[in-house]
Amino acid sequence: MTDAPDAAPETPDDDVIEQKAVRLAKRERLLAERTDAAGGPYPVTVPVTDTIPALRERFADLEAGDETGVTAAVAGRIVFSRNTGKLCFASLQSGDGSRIQAMVSLASVGEESLQAWKELVDLGDHVYVSGEVISSRRGELSIMVADWRIAAKAVLPLPNLHSELSEESRVRSRFLDLIVRDRARETVLARAKVNASLRETFSGHEFVEVETPMLQVQHGGASARPFVTRSNAFDTELFLRIAPELFLKRAVVGGIDRVFEINRNFRNEGADSTHSPEFAMLEAYQSYTDYNGIADLTQELVQNAAIAVAGSTTVTWADGTEYDLGGQWDRISMYASLSEASGRSITPETSADELAAFAAEVGVDEPAHPTHGKWVEELWEHFVKPSLTRPTFVMDFPVDTSPLVREHRSIAGVVEKWDLYVRGFELATGYSELIDPVIQRERFVEQAQLAARGDVEAMRIDEEFLRALEHGMPPTGGMGMGIDRLLMAITGLGIRETILFPLVK
Predict the structure, then answer these.
(1) Residue 295 and residue 417 in contact, taking contact as beta carbons nearer than 8 Å
(2) Which residues span the domain enclosing 122?
(3) Do 363 and 334 form a contact (C-beta atoms < 8 A)?
(4) Residue range 98-109, pLDDT digits in tens
(5) In terms of domains, do 305 and 433 share one?
(6) How many CA atoms lie within 13 A of 164 on its CB side?
(7) What does the alpha-carbon distance between residue 312 and residue 305 come to, in Å, rounded to a whole number?
(8) How many secondary structure helices (H) and strands (E) does the chain include?
(9) Binding site for Mg(2+): which residues?
(10) CATH number of the domain where residue 463 is located
(11) Residue 429 contacts by C-beta under 8 Å, 6 or more apart in sequence?
């Protein structure tokens, strides 16, 4: 995905317009000939007794030409059709992509029914069939149809199943993508497996899943530009949440010592191959641990998710690349790794002016609202980030870029924060949480001063959160991880592929 405007939806060509007219005429005929048994082009239901994947599993060992004597009734979308004189063939596809062949013969259904099939049934229609389960002479699992009816008439044709949809078409018309492309369906199933795995891992560690507000009177929990809306009922400005952090920490104050949420977040920022304005986020907080303990938990969460999807911690990306998520992941210091890669000693005491001069020497652009910490992070991304191949925790960040994080227990000027890099992008972040309400207020004031100078991503003073901290929050480790990015790390896909229905213009 790029920052360029998305292309407009394609205009239907003359052939599609003509096909739609023909199909609408068939719909009218089905309506005119409707009976209680047939139900017209859109019946309320059809008497399905079996599913296509269940039949494929049950009769996986049938030899070519075998008959079972078993009657089954299934429904599916027609994705292939071939009509001959006395015998018609169709492939019915279920939602998971599995298929079964329907054989409609003159001997089984009679001349009138066979002719109706030829005249009324099109590619893309949902069709109900019932009959004996057999294996065709070519060894294809089939139903010898004794009864059939249309379950839903498609008035627009499917795209060509033998050519790839463009990325733009896949994103704009995901329903078609799911019909025609195995990878699209597999990604949806992979996401479901990832979420189930995350919940299972948390359950094994006695975490409690909660829900926090998506509409907030005060945005916070991250440095990001919010979406703004308004409540008519309360006559007040509201924000779509940029993070659930400050509410989850309230839960910790209230005694829920291990808490997590899988949620939707919204950030009114740029969109590219790793960012979407609306995205899924996991956040978790564990009392009586620190950023090292929460890093251990994060590694376990990611590795278990990989196993749930791929059966192994070695995953295969969409381009065929194998990527190893197993083993113990490296932990490197931001300042030490930057000093080593740049060949210049950079410490928390290095002034912002020195960093700015060095950045100019090496061609690093000035960040918006530059501070010591923002210069360090920009330089680190220039010198170190491109060299990271294996999953790596980057530890100990500048204090001025991390207003919600505890100062390092032994290194002045840094905080106990890590970012996890996988596949060249930031996958997760974790903290030893700042629990001192006095220092937290000072940090919020510093953020407010940045906001006053025009930093639209700076946090505001959140008095309700500070009031919660003043009631005592235990030592806590916390983490946040993008679900969409976790899918990217496991599948090798871009963010618009891992989100089922991404925002497009």
Answers:
(1) no
(2) 13-152
(3) no
(4) 999 999 999 999
(5) yes
(6) 6
(7) 9
(8) 16, 18
(9) 419, 426
(10) 3.30.930.10
(11) 417, 418, 419, 420, 479, 480, 481
Q: Which residues pair with 415 in a beta bridge?
A: 397, 407
**What pTM, to 2 d.p., does this model score?**
0.88
Asked whether residue 196 falls in the same domain as residue 317, the answer is yes
Tokens encoding 84: 């001959």
Please check the confidence at residue 458 and state whether its pLDDT lies above 80: no
Counting beta carbons within 10 angstroms of the beta carbon of residue 355, is it exposed (0 to 12), middle (13 to 18) or buried (19 or more)? buried
**Strand ranges (DSSP E) for 423-487?**
425-432, 476-482
**How many C-beta atoms lie closer than 10 Å to residue 495's C-beta?**
21
Binding residues: 419, 426
Give the three-class secondary structure for 306.
Answer: helix
Q: Identify which of 500, 481, 465 has the alpha carbon closest to the alpha carbon of residue 202.
A: 481
**Close Cβ partners of 314 (under 8 Å, ≥ 6 residues apart):** 322, 323, 324, 325, 326
Q: Is pLDDT above 80 for 54?
A: yes
Quickly tell me which residue has 């949480």 as its tokens: 433
Would 2 be classed as within a structural domain?
A: no
Q: How far is CA 176 from CA 171, 234, 380, in A?
A: 10, 41, 42
- Going by their DSSP bridges, the two strands 414-422 and 425-432 should be labelled as antiparallel
